[in-house]
Amino acid sequence: MKPRVAVFKFASCDGCQLQFLNAEDELLRLAGQVDLVYFPEARSRSLPGPYDIAFVEGSITTPDDARRIIRVREESRYLVTIGACATAGGIQALRNWADVEQYRRVVYPSPEFISTLSTSTPISEHVRVDFEVWGCPIDKGQLLAVTRSLLSGAKPVLPAYSVCMECKRRGNVCVVVARGEPCLGPVTRTGCGALCPALNRGCYGCFGPANDENMESFVKLLAQQGVTGDDAVRRLRGINGYVRLWRETADAIAAQKK
Amino acid sequence: MTEPMYMPKAALENLIALLRGDGYKVLGPVSRDAGVAFEEVRAVSDLAAGVRDSQEAGRYRLEPGVPGEIFGVVNGAGSLKPFFFAPDENLIEVRREGKSFKSSEVIPPPRRLAFVGVRACDLAAVAVQDRIFLHDRFRDTHYETRRKDVFMVAVNCTRSAPTCFCASMKTGPEATAGFDLSLTEMDECFVAKSGSSAGEAMLERLGLRTASAGEAEQARTLTDRCAAGMRRQLDTSDLPRLLYEQADSPRWKEVASRCLSCTNCTMVCPTCFCHAVVDQQEIDGNMSRRVRQWDSCFSLEHAHIHGINFRPRIEDRYRQWLTHKLASWIDQFGTSGCVGCGRCITWCPVGIDLTQEVAAIRASAIK
Amino acid sequence: MTTPYAIYPARITERRAETSGVYTFTMRFTDPGIRRSYRFKAGQFNMIYAFGVGEVPISIVSDPEEPEALQHTIRIVGRVTEVMGRWKVGDIVGVRGPYGNGWPVDEARGRDVVIVTGGLGCAPVVGLINYIFRRRDQYGELHILHGVKTPNDLLYRERFDEWRRAPRTRVYLTADRPDKSWHYRIGVVTQLFDELAVPASSVAMMCGPEVMMRLAARAFRDKGISEDAIFLSMERRMECAVGLCGHCQYREYFACKDGPVFSYRAVRELFRTTGI
After folding, report:
1. Which pTM value belongs to this model?
2. Which of A149, A152, B54, B261 is the most interior residue, by most CB within 10 Å?
């Protein structure tokens, strides 16, 4: 019997699960390997669990979702989060530093219909996660590699070193050194193919922190480039701003200012 | 080799054309993305002429140079390394055959490459990598295939970047080996020398005349002056022993407080050879590639095995890199791993300078 | 021109569970030519490949005189070995090798031999012990010292008991944290060195945690054994096994091609510092 695979969506933009559809040729071959039994974005027929592999996109922002993810976990043998929202809380985790109650009153004409949590949190804060795929959006190649690894009965593995390594393998000219561009590459996890530096832009950290980083020295480097205070905080509190190390670094800079 | 020849600047066009006519893809320093890189040149106009590089620790800029000067840029981030030791290449393909499988080598396609404008330090670096990949116990067939059929046109340095220290490493500024032709650029002409029979034949086809004693002397003076004027220095005396003995120097911790462990120094280093082999399986599970990718001793996983990381701290890894480059490399391969090109200094985002680190370690050892 | 990375298929002909999570596989190259030409020395290792998943270095524990049936003891510790733990008889796996220098079994001939192992890393010395037993009259007294944290960590209990009964052989087993079933010694393996009486002409070989090996090497040196006759099997990340990938560097050495077995004289200085 082919493994039963499900793709679930929580608070997110759908961009990560779209990577399945972007896989095109590989998607067809993947379909020969697994039963995509639950994937509302791609097919209308949705089957109940249990599932062998559940891919989870999105963060937890509502009481309903907080309950739903527990059910997903119970029904799934292997749970993989896909993307910055599911893995780190996403851009919507900016609410974690804001007054959500105020937003609700200001934004919605009938705020009483809005049931929301005051935070956006990653899936791992709610249930056990077997593997995390980073990125905003995730990389198609990484998604397929993780899937293939699971089908081979092996724990997935993805590189967790800095973007710089991949950036230099590509032959990019370092934007920090040659242009003075602020770039999160040295502290960001590889996986995107060093897309932004390849286009002469600094990395903005959408794959989250690398597995080994020296934030103290990195913050000094930003300061040398004139990126301090609010500007530095904004760069760190981005798509993956709620990840502990970046959160603590940004909070420390914010506290210093006061 | 042959005597120095007088080569008018216009003859460079002819040289490129002849090489192309011989089936070489000609590569030279080309301006790209605020830097220079070795890329295909079809004519002299493709080269990064008339610009110079301004380098210091952690900073690189291209600036207007001297009109008429063709090889004004000392170097860019890219060396010749990626052409022979590819940053990302398929080594073997393993294909399922029933219950079994078959592994087959993926040989890079044959090609002829001619490099124009190679600096002495980079030629020395190629010799270092040749020693590792071709003349060790195991021969790397991929490197061997890529390294074959190469024509090297060196350019002797008449100007050094502030980050250069090839004179200390005895690899430059004048190329002494590993080239087919070497050129010294002067205001109006080159002085050309051959370094191989292929180079000699090329000089003949170019129809050059012998350089006058004065011209040859002037070329020599330019490179001598460049060597004498090189500000950065690395004292290599007693180097393996110094670094071995200073394995517990407090300096390692100090430099680790600045080091981002981003791996940039090792990626731009023309001799660093660490690589990982990763498995890339087709989604249907019928074929799997074993792919080699440049790796770095600065990555956390580099010395990690199940349950143990032998170099968990950045200070362990910086020490590994520097000690390997300048000391254990000599034990392993009979040559230093450093050619003095200065790339690790320029391209370190936080400007860590190995010559300063060695000096600091030396100073603290004397105390 | 053949790449040193070429992988050769081998068929598993036997699978034996040593203890939970440790299996010994017997494998034979499927290609008859390779099977006949393949030779190895005691203590060398092969790179073992699980299709599409990866390679790991595993020492060969079978006897060099029977190179057609290779035995590898694999402990399930990571993503690749987890897959290997599910291998069955008849499965085709990948092998390339042999690599490494192996144990100094020729140098040790005619002399007393002390073998020290600690923790779970004893598979490489089991091959060595078997080697000596098959040529028992070529070696002097044999002392086998083995320390574990808890009795559960003791692999090959029956074999240790069997070796204990052999002539001219002494076996010393010790556990840091014993339970009621434990009727051997109590304490760390290094405590055994005090009572060990061996001539200075002995050869010592060891495999296990670096701390243990460092203490053992010092103890043997204090007993007058030359630093050239004390051998340590060093563990490092071996990825290419041919001295090119750089991962297994141990200062000036590549563990894969210069080791994994080193004399104490060669590595003594390196023990001074952590993180090398």
Report:
1. 0.95
2. B261
